[in-house]
Amino acid sequence: MFAWTLWGCGVAPMEPAQAVAEARLPELGAPAPGPVPPPVADGFDFPVGPPDASGYYDAQPFGRNTHLGADWNAVTGGNTDLGAPVHVVAHGVVTFAADIGGGWGNVVRVRHRYEEEGSLRDVESLYGHLDRVDVAPGEVLERGATVGTIGDAHRNYIAHLHFEVRSVVGLPVGPGYAADSTGYLDPTGFLQAHRPK
Ligand SMILES: [Zn+2]
After folding, report:
1. Which domains can be identified in the chain, with CATH numbers?
2. Who is most buried in 30, 72, 93, 103, counting CB within 10 A?
3. pTM of the model
4. 85: which strand partners?
5. Contact indicator for 139, 101 with CB cutoff of 8 Å
6. Alpha carbon of 67 to ligand 1 centroid (Å)
């Protein structure tokens, strides 16, 4: 890249063809910088009762009480869903999997890539309050793989899944509730609009 910087300064130390070749050299045969790019998703399912959230309901939809996610609960109520499997909504790469305590407990975050209007876009899904975590950062997952189980964030709540979809990948884990939802999507609306063909 330095060659282009020199060109920008008005200095011409090399013939153009040579400058292009040298500028590209570091990329030849080198691994892609940063994390593994996620496989392109073939569509999105729901994270509980897959593929359609069968047996579950959204007890606190996105936007209600400035909620930044959806709270999935079993229709059978109470803690009957404690320990039930939570599924990754689409092919993706795990970017975070850890117990961060507080109001969150165990959190898993997955980066997804999907095609829309002819271009590739990235989106992130987040699974909060998990009782058990079954994945580790860097793992490549296929749609429907189990990322963990429904939990109660160390008995902070009646067991449920706090589920987010973010249009901005890599934000801080966040507050779960905020009047400003920039970078967050209505998770149910997003899933419904991107079901597998
Ligand atoms: Zn929630």
Report:
1. 1-30 (no CATH), 49-193 (2.70.70.10)
2. 72
3. 0.82
4. 149
5. no
6. 6
